[in-house]
Each structure stands twice: as C-alpha cells, then as structure tokens.
Amino acid sequence: VAEHVHIYTLGISRPFGASTFILSWDEKVGSSIYCIESSGQCYKYFGWAIGKNAQAAKTEIEKVQEIDGQSNLGKEELIKRAIHVLLTTREEGTTGHRIEMGWIGEDSNEVFEGINQSEVDKLEEEVSQQMEDEED
To answer: Which keywords has UniProt assigned to this entry (predicted)?
Structure first.
C-alpha cells in the first residue's frame, strides 16, 4: 500500500494527501500500528497521532507508554486512556465533538470491531469527571 501511495506522489498522478493507519494483530507479534504518510513512507509505531494537535497527542501517548510499557491492560482501561488522550488534546471551547472507537485483538477474533457507542459515551463521562476532579 505504501509503495502504491509513493508512486502516486512521484508524479503519476496527484498525491493522495492523506495519511492512513493500518492496524493488525496476531498471536506471535501482538498488536501493530502502521502509519502510511501521504509521501508513501510507512513506519510501525506503539502509538501515533496525525492531524491537528498531533504533537500534543503523541506526548500524551508517550506518557501512557512510560507508565505501562506494553502491559496487557483490559479493554475498558485502554478505552479510558485513549479517551483521556483525546480530551487532553482537544482545544478548549470545542463543542459538538463525538468520539468513535474501534479495536482489533484476541477478544474480537482478530477482526476489527467497532466499540458500542453507548459504552464509549459512558467511559467518556467517567474520564471527564476524573479529569475535573484532578483539577480541583
């Protein structure tokens, strides 16, 4: 896929102009995150962010990594930490946002699966409350 994107960038056509995440999971390696940049470069990451406020999000992801390394956190705790990163890096005064999540892993039979929106909303409320309590 990265080679295909790179060929377009070299001049066959207009560049794609978007970055893409490819997620995978297998029993030997575990989870993997790859990011294909619009230039065609492809790298494997533990956690990564693109777009507006990407650097702030990467910093928050690194904090989680320093605390937990690659420990086997439960699904709910992983969702909470991802929501925390998103809420921490969101600009103040932003309204009308909606967090949608999905995951891939052993519990999902190695197939990408969307996370129930009501579960995400409930955990977002919990994380928001925890963040407010920490500020006080």
So the answer is: Proteasome
